[in-house]
Amino acid sequence: MPNLRGAFESWRDKDLGLGKRPVIFDVLAPDRTTSLLPDNLKFVLYVNPRTMQVNHTKLIDRARTRGGFVEFNWGDAADTVTFEGATGGFMRLYTGVVGNTSPQGRRQTLAYQKYLDLLALFHWNGAVFDQNGQIAAQGYLQMTFDEGVYTGWFQDSLTITESAQKPFMFDWSGTFVVETEVMNLRTVNFNQQTGLVTPTGVGVQPGQTIVGNENE
Amino acid sequence: MSKTPAQVYGSLGTGPTLISRYEPNRALPIDGTNQSLRNPVTGSPFTVYLVPPSTLVNALSGGGTSRPRSVFDPLLEEANQIAVAGNQNPIGTRVPASTNVGIIDSALKSNSNWSAVKSRQSNFKTKKFVSTPTGQPTNQNLVAQNGTSFNDRTAYNSNANQVAIADMQQALSVLSQLRAILNTPRLTLFVNPEEFSRVFTKKVSYSERNRNGYLLQSSFDEQVTLSGRGRTGNFITGVPTGVSGPNGQNPTTSGVQYASKLDSAAWQNLMNLYQIFKNNGVIYNPDGSEAHLWTGLVAIEYDQFVYYGQFDSFNYNYDESSPNAIAFDFSFTVSFMTDVAENSPVLPMQSPTPSPSDPRYIGQNPSNVPFSTNTRSNQVTTGAASQIGQDATFDPFVTNE
């Protein structure tokens, strides 16, 4: 039976050596550790955003005085990640791309359902609601992309736009505010004896050119 | 030219909101740029480095920090001279001529003070509130005066309020962070920013008016602001290193592709710049908060100008239209800038009344110039003054005796 697949099989794709880097969302309990999603299940964006900008700002107030400027350092502003992307094409089984809104239309496509999942995640935002709709406990969203693990929440608005110029998809944009950021970086190892930068500490092999980050 | 692992920059203090973890490269990083373009003699390097807080460095090297002169000092000096001439006591100075933080002494004093406080608290528990000899203050009076029990007649007083450092743990953390700053090498970008702007702003207003015309209101210039926008080099890796992933798998990447990003020299160069941005020359309080104990400077050296100041923002952008490189931008506010150009047969014009905001006003390498009041109008006054040209071999854990 034919089926339609997204670009990613699961959230483990980035570790399979296929060169895939999905954007993964998890929902954490207030303890920042326990996932509120079912076991081994995480939310993977159907299509990676077109752009994803990570913004960092320092909070420094500057006052002009008679003798010069006085700077007050207040640390870091909350980091934000701004997204701009598309839902992916509305491809319906046995029909192909669809743009109509009939019951046998775009609502029956994987891309549309994933968009609704994203919208639900935005509304949920890691909160636990009581029967009156009030927030009883606040958890976290954890976004993972490549080396970065960002714990925070959606902030401001999630904008969904459909355009006549792009009838088979939605454009979406949003902002994720980051409380804590974990960067999993890599480095070459430094060989104390040879003074050369080597990956295993053995030494640089002839014909290999290794450059790290140069200093003067 | 020596090579520096990216992990060296990861030792910088970056505050509680960022955790940086390093693992070994799985493929060899390749720098595909033309290295000769970064030669400091023949090329155009764009270099960023950290300048540690001068007051902290001075304290540890045995010197004091000279107090900068203010506009009130001449008045005080004149008043003192008049007082002395009239055989009267001088008024005194505004603040001591120099100060020494005494970080280690403070920490040791705090440690002993804490022990003394604990001792007094345990003694207080054995005291009686009512039955005291006649004429002596009751323990109620003693508690009301200081919150803990002390004997004011023996002048046993706590100096706990006078220390600058809470304890030895805090002092050690400060020293570790300082050493990380001192040991962080200068970072030269592999690819210079595509766009680099310097904005010089006058503080001049000629819009208010009275019946006789417009009024000129002029003051010293605003701080210079820098902004840069650029791209990293492409993500290129070479042969695999043999390092496996966390699950034992050993997928390898090579060539120019996004999957090579983490192992690539270009990405690691950008992340090193990010670490410098997050540190911004700051010594953090080790209690896990964002409190700053000292503030240093970041220096950007380009085109034979050195800009001392701090980053205001740093952003980088993943874009599907450029999958093999990252675009970034930053903004920077300059506390002061210096011109370190060598003598040239082409001489600049000299103003008869040079502005303190003109970096050529200093006229020489600032490492030979003491903290000058001539440039005060364009300099930061709280904690950001730098010990320019600081000895790179200085180690805060080694006493200079």
Residue-averaged pLDDT of chain B: 75
Determine the structural class of chain A based on helices, strands and strand pairing: mainly beta
What is the radius of gyration of chain A computed over CA atoms, rounded to a whole number of angstroms? 23 Å
Which structural class best describes the helix and strand composition of chain B? alpha+beta
The beta-strand count of chain B equals 20
Distance between the termini of chain A: 62 Å
Outline type of chain A: globular
Unreliable stretches of chain A (pLDDT < 50, length at least 5) are 190-216
What is the element string of chain B, with H for helices and E for strands? Answer: EHEEEHEHEHHHEEEEEEEEEHEEEEE
Fraction of residues in H or I helices of chain A: under 10%
Greatest interface and its participating residue counts: A-B, 63 and 98 residues
Kindly report the oligomeric state of this protein.
Answer: heterodimer
Which strands sit side by side, in order, in the main sheet of chain B? 7-4-18-19-20-13-8
The largest beta-sheet of chain A arranges its strands as 2-1-10-11-12-5-3-4
Estimated helix fraction of chain B: 10-25%
Rg of Cα set of chain B: 28 Å
Question: What do these coordinates show?
Answer:
The complex is a heterodimer of chains A (216) and B (401). By secondary structure, chain A is mainly beta. In chain A, strand 11 and strand 12 form a beta hairpin. Chain A is built from one helix and 15 strands; from the N terminus they run E-E-E-E-E-E-E-H-E-E-E-E-E-E-E-E. The C terminus of chain A is likely disordered. Chain A has an eight-stranded antiparallel sheet, with helices on one face. Chain A has a two-stranded antiparallel ribbon with strand order 6-7. By secondary structure, chain B is α+β, with helices and mostly antiparallel strands. In chain B, the strands form six sheets. In chain B, strands 7-4-18-19-20-13-8 form a seven-stranded antiparallel sheet, with helices on one face. Chain B has a three-stranded antiparallel sheet with strand order 3-14-15, with no helix packed on it. In chain B, strands 5-6 form a two-stranded antiparallel ribbon. In chain B, 33% of the residues are buried. The longest helix of chain B is centred in the N-terminal third of the chain and has 22 residues. Chain B is built from seven helices and 20 strands. In chain B, strand 16 and strand 17 form a beta hairpin. Chains A and B meet through strand 3, strand 4, strand 12, strand 13 and strand 15 of A and strand 1, helix 1, strand 2, strand 3 and strand 7 of B.
